[in-house]
Amino acid sequence: MxxxxxxxxxxxxxxxxxxxxxxxxxLGREMAEGxxxxxxxxxxxxxxxxxxxxxxxxxxxxxxxxxxxGKVTPIACDIRVPEAIAEMMDTxxxxxxxxxxxxxxxxxxxxxxxxxxxxxxxxxxNIVFRGSFFVTLEAGKRWLKQGRKGAxxxxxxxxxxxGGPFTVPSAMSKxxxxxxxxxxxxxxxxxxxxxxxIAPGPFPTEGAWxxxxxGQPADGSNREVTGSPLGRMGEMRELANLAVYLLHPLSExxxxxxxxxxxxxxxxxxxxxxxxxxxxxxEWEAARASIQGANAQDRARRTV
Length: 304
Ligand code: HXC
Ligand code: NAP
What we know:
This protein is 43% helix and 13% strand. It is of the alpha/beta class. It has a single domain (7-264, 272-299), classed as NAD(P)-binding Rossmann-like Domain (Rossmann fold). A seven-stranded parallel sheet has the order 3-2-1-4-5-6-7, sandwiched between helices. Helix 4 links the parallel strand 4 (100-103) and strand 5 (150-155). Helix 1 (26-37) crosses helix 8, helix 3 packs parallel to helix 4 (118-146) and helix 7 (206-212) runs antiparallel to helix 9. The longest helix is centred in the middle third of the chain and has 29 residues, at 118-146. Bound molecules: hexanoyl-coenzyme A and NADP nicotinamide-adenine-dinucleotide phosphate. NADP nicotinamide-adenine-dinucleotide phosphate (NAP) binds at residues 21-22, 24-28, 45-48, 51, 77-80, 104-108, 127, 131, 155, 157, 200, 202-203, 205, 207-208, 298.
């Protein structure tokens, strides 16, 4: 990304300090890049310490402080572990308070719901529903106690409105975060802590494609974009611009909103995996084997 990809003046986010969960890869990395390019200091967390280190270095090499960019600090943290979240927040606050948080970390895979084990359900709900709530709570408690303003943006999916066949634990968990956004916007808004959410349509990433379109290239080049009025997937810079807007203090009056960025896809009835109803046992077995291969590869790189 270059400054030409962003619709804001250089230095716009100077003085902002933002944690992006899952910021080592995919959408989180792209939003982290947009924020740091505009001068924000950004913290990125995830379970693969090496991936975080590589991302922090790559972003700071591409956008040095001399060009007005902020710092990127990697912190290995598993958001399924509340104590680890508290420790991460203590580490961050020791440098200074956050001004914003992006709840972006997630887990997901396509599966027939009747094939899910309790561990399969928990694998997703413990990251998305429970993990994101505890990250929010640890940041929120610190903001409220210190009388500071804070902006939270949660990355959801359009399935919070349409439902998500074959991705039910994800859709349920994201729907919970949608209600968290609405509820805490009302509960904490008068104390300066505001909540919004983004519901992206498809933006090709390795993490999502390995688990939602197994066997297809992660650039999304051969996935048909059915039902999208624009006939295409999202561009990372489009997402980064929206995240910057929602986190900037001048958008303070925007509170409790979930904004879709999907080219109008879900309004047009697209955006989900309903077409997988056509799959039989053989397709599901192949998908599961492919997804579990990707899971095992990623797990081997975890440092926490
Ligand atoms: C059925 C499956 C499965 C599959 C795993 N499981 N894959 N069940 N079908 N395809 C089951 C396992 O069998 C096991 O249950 C349980 O889930 C836990 O599996 P682990 O591999 O041990 O889990 P874990 O190491 O905790 O990994 C968590 C994970 C993994 C969620 C399964 O995918 C992960 O770490 N993901 C992080 C990255 C990610 O998912 N990114 C995509 C986000 S995209 P049993 O009972 O067998 O022990 C997204 C939205 C995209 O969210 C929207 C697009 C429009
Ligand atoms: P991704 O690259 O796989 O991103 C997920 C990130 O979450 C990874 O960096 C992963 O890092 C981190 N993570 C997972 N479990 C974690 C845990 N327990 N603790 C800390 N970090 C954890 O996939 P993505 O496509 O960019 O997805 C990012 C967000 O966008 C997700 O919320 C997803 O639901 C949402 N979204 C994506 C799309 C899309 O089309 N790509 C569409 C709609 C919504 P580690 O594995 O190292 O922990």
